[in-house]
């Protein structure tokens, strides 16, 4: 993130919002749970298969008052908030998470773990990316490690990350969506042979919801 954008954020009272909406979490440990999603713009990790490429350039998303976002979130019956991106940890998240917490909401973070974490979270889902790996201290904060598998070599990447998380951290292998048919048989066999791992699929894509 450039200093120029950071300066506009007023210490986190404003954030570059891409979209916010009430839906159902489609993947990972909280699959099936209704949640309000807050998606922030900006990511420089550059995953080839990213399904949120439209979020990458933060300049396209002028900072929005966090108070407005929070008011909208609490106007829905959601009990959980998913903060996602892009890479939301590019920004100071203390104010946003503090306000959401004050309203009694559970806060789940989706991150690649490449930036130092700010804010308070009830659940950290860390999805490590090969192009730019996670910070070791973030792996120790993960409640859930969700590794995207697009080829057989990704199991080794998954294990290298799993070796650095806490024992209590849940482990998920998730097929990259465009390789689903090709990779799911291998992922199923891998999980059966290495039962520390669970399988996550992007159920929201089957349900045709965001
Ligand atoms: S880290 Fe996430 S948002 Fe960033 S490019 Fe990769 S998949 Fe997309």
Q: Give the H and E element order.
A: HEEEEHEHEEHEHEHEH
CATH architecture: Alpha-Beta Barrel
Q: Biggest β-sheet: count, sense, barrel? A: 8 strands, mixed
* CA-CA gap between termini: 26 Å
Q: Helix count, per DSSP?
A: 7
CATH class identity: Alpha Beta
Write up what this structure looks like.
The structure is a single chain. By secondary structure, this protein is an alpha/beta fold. It has a single domain, classed as Aldolase class I (TIM Barrel, Alpha-Beta Barrel). Helix content is 26%, strand content 23%. It contains 7 helices and 10 strands. It has helices at 3-7, 66-74, 94-102, 136-139, 154-162, 180-193, 203-207; strands at 14-15, 17-24, 34-40, 64-65, 80-84, 106-111, 123-126, 144-149, 170-175, 197-199. The strands form 2 sheets. An 8-stranded mixed sheet has the order 2-3-5-6-7-8-9-10, with helices on one face. A two-stranded antiparallel sheet has the order 1-4. It is globular. The two termini are 26 Å apart. The protein binds iron/sulfur cluster. Iron/sulfur cluster is lined by residues 43, 45-47, 50, 52, 85-87, 112, 129.
